Amino acid sequence: MFGFVINKLKNRKWLNLCLLMGVALFIALFVCHPMFEKGAGNQILDRLFTDHATQQNEFPAQMSREGTYAVADYPDSQSVLDKLSGYEKKWTEYVDINKVSSQQLITLSGGRADTEFGGLNHYFTIGYLPGLSEYADVVKSQTDTATFECSISEKTMDHYGLVAGEKIYLHVPDGSGKKEISFVISQICREKDINDPYWAKTLSDMGDVIFVSQDVFDEMMQYYSEDNISYSDFLMLDYRQINTENASLYDGYMEQFKDADKLYNDNIRDTLERFFTQQKTIKRMLWALELPCLVLLILFIRMISAQILSLEENDILVLRSRGATKLQVFILYMQQSGIIAFAGCVLGIVLGYIMCRAAASTDGFLRFTAKDIGTYRFVWQMLVYAVAAAVIMVLFITVPVWKKSKDAISEHSRGRISKKKPLWEKCFIDVILLALSAYLLYNYNKQKSTLAISVLENRSIDPVMILDNSLFIFAAALLCVRLTGLIILLVDRLFKKHFSPAMYASFLQLKRTRYNQGFLAVFLIMTVAGGIFDANMARTMNSNMEKRIVYNVGCDAIYNEDFRLRIQKNKDGSVSWMYDEPDFGKYESLKNEGICDGVTRVLEDERVDISAGSGSISDAYLMAINTKEFGETAKLQSDQNDDINDAHWFNYLNELAKEPDGVIISSNLAKALGLKVGDSLNYSRYVPEAVDDDQIYASENAKVCAIVKGFPGYERYTYETDVEGNVTEQEKYLIVANYATVVEKFGMTPYSVWMNLSKGKTVDDIYKNLTSAQQLIDENKNSATVQITNGMFTLSFILSLIVCSVGFLLYWVMTLKQRELQFGIYRAMGMRMREVKAMLLNEQIFLSFLPLLAGAGIGITATAMFVRLISIIYLPQKHNIGVNVYIYPSDMLELAGVLFVAVAVCYVVISRLLKSMKIAQALRLGEDS
């Protein structure tokens, strides 16, 4: 039996190889899913931990416990430290992650103290920090063996005006009253590396602690009548070992720690909660992006398997006529498909691994890079997915055999061409699906703002929103098949009397087989339309993201200078403050060195109050600029269709340059306060937050000289998240003033340095800690969501080209083979080869060219209808620049070029087959059949 199956496969080796290709691609795409999901999940986790460290300025994976112990239970420091180490050991028994560092601090409540050089009534806490000598540098030191030695931080030194060698007289309770203990400041310390994971609490965070040795701390415990000793324990773990496999397990353990111990805390669970939400989004997005491509491959496999089954109908007839049961025939073909599925499974796993790595390496549509994709590795779930896909393929290929093997002889006697109208056409399924797609589109468009907020709040997206475009393409493809059939009947009715014999035979064939040939039309339309939509969706997403980033930055690179704030308390109790400006000349020299074409100061303040008439605005955004330098440096990214503003933004700079006390304001500010050009307003600024949170120190009257909708670096819409994770949209109001006027009226305050890089120069030629548009674009391209989208759209586009070309060529070649007898009869009746070719060309026009054109039209229509909606997933924020649809001619030319080559090759192959066809052999074939 097995040998018979192998021989059957060899007899139609090219068809079976094409079927193997389809099965392998289907399994490969299936296999991609778990690898892509796990890789993207690990990438998200790494990004979330990194972002947490940057935004919260703390190590992103810490477990901690803070509280007090009774001195009666723990009489010395070592017993407390041992207890804390026991907690750490218990935590890591369950959360099996390597320890990066550990910080343990124990303190006694201390008391009031005087200092040797006049300090009175200060409050100090006595503490022991085991890692102080290892992780801190001694700035100043002085020993004194006559008293207890202690160390203090630089902050404590500055705050109380202490010096090394100065004595501290601490008044502590000893049970019978107050007792004075003398300490000498032997060391003033600072962190060796404040970014070291050890410094969960920095020396500044520890407050007014005087640090002593362990022996001194134990001795101090004898003097106190305190019942408790305070402690804090921070355990820093290697967050890189937390991945998609163990994240849920570790989150459960940490939740149990918190339930069992109210003093336990960590900063890992919040990150994991955000990860689980984003992971759900990634899962749904992957399936939504993969499903259209899987359907396309199923259509391809169905087309080839149907051709094979059609060619083997005679084999089935012979088997049934010789006594084989339906079950035996079914098992025979199941073995045949099983061999193909097994080979496809082996190839699919390898191909899926390669495809996933290739997709993960993209940083744009059809742009493959050599970036690090270490998080995308082989996972054991790929084997499960491969087996599941192989089983699906075996059933999909074999099940139609059962129907064919029913009383095959009587079926054969009724003929092979089905003239029965398909069920979908009878029930108008195409119209119903089209209406459903339109309804979903209308409904989602009404909910755009709600959907955008859901994305910003990291809620799971609705996959139907992504799949709706595929539903539209499929429904439109069925409708085109219906219309193509009507067009064929209409043309035949109008010109039937004028047809030549060849053309009459061609339309006769079209009418007889139009229901059977509809499958090819749907396949072609979906591949072309899907390819066009994938290309346009990816281009639109990437282009809009890049343009928004360029607009938000406003120039090539920005450097935020470090300004030193000096605060002085006056005798009358008031506070004076002043910023020390760094040397700006080092930036101006970049122009002379040819690194920058433009450099300018841009003073920014987001705590500005504006009033005009009876109206007022709080928390407006002030930019103070030098108009000439700013015009040479800044860039305003325009909209796709026209400029954001009514005139070129240089015109507004010119108006500001004419008015030293003038300002440019945003259109929303003008609307909110009822202002127009020529009106006056007043704007006020607050003192630095380090001095006072809510104190206005100066105001200025200004004249409105221009009103703009967009300005370099100005984002009109901002979003704030409350403690419950709810996101609210707010508008930002812009006011732009002259730099010299602002400094004169308000004094020197921190500014950023904007740069316009010379051609061929990058930020690496200046400083490594610059903020540049290109860096932000690169970071955005490497985000998991964008990477998945670019990768899947790229794979879908490439697979569309391959499947469409192979499927189109194979279908027509096999159709020609099946009609060899018919062509032989036509030639025997006197039809010329030129007429046979004309007949085939006419059939291709209706069955191939019209669907291809329809596919292009449907793809462009789907782009116009759905791209802006789906872009909400990637661009949920409102922006000065709206979402514009981008269609790259190069993508359309690539698709058209591949299809043109496929059609040309098909026509050449058909011509050669017709030339090589022998009439007598064809007629003899008819006699044999």
UniProtKB/TrEMBL annotation:
Keyword list (alphabetical) reads: Cell membrane, Membrane, Transmembrane, Transmembrane helix
Gene Ontology cellular-component terms for this entry are: plasma membrane
Q: Which GO terms describe its molecular function?
A: transmembrane transporter activity
- Where would you find this protein in the cell? Cell membrane
What are the residue boundaries of the ABC3 transporter permease C-terminal domain, all occurrences included?
Answer: 294-404, 797-917
Query: Where are the membrane-spanning stretches?
Result: 14-36, 285-309, 330-355, 378-402, 423-442, 471-495, 515-533, 791-813, 845-875, 895-914
Record's bilayer topology term: Multi-pass membrane protein
Record family assignment: Belongs to the ABC-4 integral membrane protein family.
Name the UniProt record assigns to this protein: ABC transporter permease
Q: What is the originating organism of this protein?
A: Agathobacter rectalis
